Amino acid sequence: MRFAMKFITTTVTQLWQGNVFSEIENAYASGLGWLITFCCDTGDCLEPRTRQKVAGMLDGLVKVGWMDCTSQEQLCDSFQVTSGVTALFPPGSSLDLQGSVLWLNTLDSKEIYNEVINHLPDLEQLTGDNFQSKLAHHRWLVGRVDCIADSKLCQSLYIHAPCVAVFKGLGIHDFEIHHGKDVLYNIVGFARDSVRAHVTTLRPDNFPSDRKEPWLVDFFAPWCPPCRALLPELRKASIQLAGQMKFGTLDCTIHHNLCSTYKIQAYPTTVIFNGSSVHEYEGQHSADGILEFIQDLVSPSVMILDPSSFSEKVKGRAEGQIWAVDFYAPWCGPCQALIPEWRRMARLLSGQILVGSVDCQQHQSFCQGQGVRSYPEIRLYLGNARQPERYTSYNGWNRDSHSLRSWALSSLPRASVDLTPESFRSLVLSGQDHWVLDFYAPWCGPCQHFAPEFEVLARVLKGKVRAGKVDCQAHHQTCQSAGITAYPTVRFYPYLGTRRYENSGEHINSRDSNVIADIITQRLQQLSPRLHNKLKTEL
Q1: Mean pLDDT throughout 327-344?
Q2: What architecture does CATH give domain 2-119?
Q3: For the domain bounded by 301-409, which CATH number is listed?
């Protein structure tokens, strides 16, 4: 309990003659009442921990305060309080209005919460006659519908059980149903998120079976925990893709026939409808995973290979061209886990290594002919066109995108060079080339992680900037004279039209090859006119 109480930050206000009336008036003006516990020598008042707990439970519904009647005796008398007691003062209430103040006869926080909730104004009752007009003319409305009295209205919305729904202000057909816990803060959180998001609860009459605009549809069952976990991720993704793609959810426990039409056999199943094209989502149940999948649909990073295209593109590859190929089966669990990482790796290797995949369930005899015996089988077909069948297999334990990328890049000829103290002085400090250097230590984990990133950088800048690596364990004095205090450290040594450099170079605070390349490219643009003028002067 003590641990949980640390996270309750709601204010409990001490009321006294100098602030009580202004505090009450301000709360009333905001539509909030006051729950006040009066503490006297006799009777009972709420202890500090209970006050804090109740304040957290009723946050946003009423203000919570306490009054010390031993020091504010006259003030308590004005509230007609002579012994310890707790009372609820709703907005507009007055001691002169009989029954407007609720006097509580309990010290239990749950009982106080229930009594306060029951005493709050009831929700506005909506009926089939006023439902549509009320939604059309209210910016924000909290109401309730009696589905026994207005069964036709609820049936038209396919609502067959008590639920909470948020209507998005676009008519009675654009709404989203809450499938989380029926707890106040869960419902409030859902309402806030749903209004900002662009997710619609789908039914047969608004299902996007023949729509031209792209739709992402989540087929789910409310009893399925992974389905409920995916729903907030869909809301996040819908905000990111607003205007580009519509999002909807279909409850397969209600719409059995529609789910059967699309052969939905597991929950959740997420499908993207784009005109005549239908793509089932394969990836992690997260907003980032969904965004990456859609990005790949728009601009595929992995080429889907069949026997014909494999023979043409992989076996018939040009000299120096390298292919990474994933042989997989859709029913294979590890294969499914690999899919988003394989796509991510393909984007990381863009422009350096071509990436493809072969469905061995669809092309079983072909995969057998290629000697594929287990899934996933990951192969790298090297750049020797005279040996088209030559490949190396990935045998690592980790199948994340960075591990796979490091393995693939390790097969490429190095684009960076190792520097010794002598070559550092002659080539970098006294040479006539721009240099970017990676100062590292062999035992350093982040250095090992950065190594393939630096090779990518070396290839991106090839022809404009030379790339070198300095082993600071072997060449401690060189690194010390350069002012290196942490590993890895990236430094840029521009050629300034003279044969002398400062040992320290220019520090670059990034380990992302794209960011570093952009920084250096901008720096080269700044140096170009300056270097031209300097060379002209020297001539």
Answers
A1: 91
A2: 3-Layer(aba) Sandwich (3.40)
A3: 3.40.30.10
